[in-house]
Design a protein that fits this description.
This protein has 333 residues and is an alpha/beta fold. The chain has one domain: Aldolase class I (TIM Barrel), CATH 3.20.20.70. 33% of the residues lie in helices and 14% in strands. It contains ten helices and ten strands. A ten-stranded mixed sheet has the order 7-6-5-4-3-2-1-8-9-10. Helix 5 links the parallel strand 5 and strand 6. Helix 6 runs parallel beside helix 7. The longest helix has 16 residues. The mean pLDDT is 93. Bound molecules: S-adenosylmethionine and iron/sulfur cluster (2 copies). The site of S-adenosylmethionine has 21 residues, from strand 3, strand 4 and strand 5. One iron/sulfur cluster binds next to helix 10.
């Protein structure tokens, strides 16, 4: 299920953002890129061909695309479910429109990570968006240190009747570009902090869910028990998410976007694309993200994915060749 980067515009400036090398620089003339409607249709056709009826929009901030509402309307007419990854900083008109859609038509994950400074007007826009979409939205935070600020989320969820779950991710690096990320040396301390947060949240019937790149050994055996009883369950996954850029370039996931990228027209279906990137990641999966992964039973038994491949590339300083996928012969039609 690929995500589609429909615009590179975003005004939030999260310190950890792994999309930062793709974002436009407001100070730089001509740096704004919005995906054309034609390219969006090309992606919808690609998804249709793959029997995938989920259109997952991000950016940048997807609602900053000047034709955002028209894009959503067209997708709904084609019977797609639209999911957006958003920072919630959108106009009231857009929030009103999204608020009127059903759960079957629309859902959102709202990034409310505290590592960005919002103006009062921006905060008000986020509040308005959440108040309109309610249970169709869940909250997400990205962790950059063991000092996880999350208490404000409890009140936000209750106030707006949001989905009672919080997606927790750890800030991953971008291979070849600098951003604020969580080094693997801090994983155990973070594991303890995540468990403390989960235990507190479950008191309010709010459960955390895990994003990709977590490792089993972030938690002791005892902590893993606590995680199971106070979360949606733990999974250590690293499966290529796949993102499609405005010009139909495609990469396996943002942390690897500079080293594992190619073009969408090289592939016929999502499965073909996913198989390609799964194969590309395979050599790194046997290492895991830390030297000690090589002797780890969790990795050997595939209970743990070995963490984020971007971390593995940094730990072992091994990058894939920049060649990309050779042109494929398409069968004549
Ligand atoms: C790149 S943002 C784009 C969409 C939208 N602007 C937003 O903030 O949700 C998509 C998601 O990636 C997450 N994210 C950004 N940088 C990350 C990183 N370095 N590691 C893990 N997740 C990250 C964000 O928290 C957000 O949930
Ligand atoms: S709001 Fe999203 S795109 Fe914008 S800086 Fe934050 S994570 Fe990146
Ligand atoms: S390399 Fe794996 S864990 Fe890291 S961001 Fe990509 S899919 Fe997630």
């Amino acid at each position: 299920m690929p995500n589609i980067l429909i615009t590179n515009v975003c005004y939030r400036a999260c310190t950890f953002c792994f999309a930062r090398q793709r974002l436009g620089d407001g100070a730089q003339e001509g740096s704004t890129i919005h995906m054309s409607r034609e390219n969006i249709r090309y992606v919808m056709d690609f998804l249709d061909r793959s029997n995938d009826k989920n259109l997952r929009l991000l950016g940048g901030e997807p609602s900053q695309h000047p034709e955002f509402v028209e894009i959503v309307k067209e997708a709904l007419e084609r019977n797609f479910h639209v999911h957006i990854f958003t920072n919630g900083m959108m106009t009231h008109e857009i929030a009103d429109y999204l608020g009127g859609l059903t759960h079957e038509q629309f859902s959102a994950l709202c990034n409310v990570s505290p590592q960005a400074t919002l103006t009062e007007a921006q905060k008000e826009d986020v509040e308005y968006f959440l108040s309109k979409v309610g249970h169709k939205a869940g909250l997400g935070i990205t962790v950059t240190s063991e000092d996880i600020q999350y208490e404000y989320l409890i009140d936000t969820i209750k106030r707006h009747n949001l989905g009672k779950q919080i997606r927790v991710g750890i800030a991953q690096p971008i291979v070849g570009v600098s951003n604020e990320f969580l080094p693997v040396s801090n994983y155990k301390t973070i594991g303890t902090a995540i468990l403390a947060m989960a235990r507190n949240l479950i008191e309010h019937d709010i459960m955390i869910g895990f994003d990709c790149g977590m490792t089993m050994c972030m938690f002791s055996e005892e902590e893993l028990g606590g995680i199971i009883t106070s979360s949606r369950g733990f999974d250590s996954i690293c499966t290529p998410v796949m993102d499609i850029g405005p010009n139909l370039d495609v990469w396996s996931c943002f942390p690897l976007s500079e080293v594992l990228n190619t073009r969408l027209d090289q592939f016929d279906t999502v499965k073909e694309l996913s198989d390609y990137y799964t194969n590309q990641l395979l050599p790194y999966k046997q290492f895991g993200c830390m030297p000690e992964c090589m002797d780890c039973a969790y990795l050997r038994r595939k209970q743990c994915s070995g963490g984020c491949v971007a971390q593995t590339m940094l730990t072992f300083n091994r990058l894939p060749s920049k060649k990309g996928r050779p042109p494929q012969e398409k069968p004549a039609v």
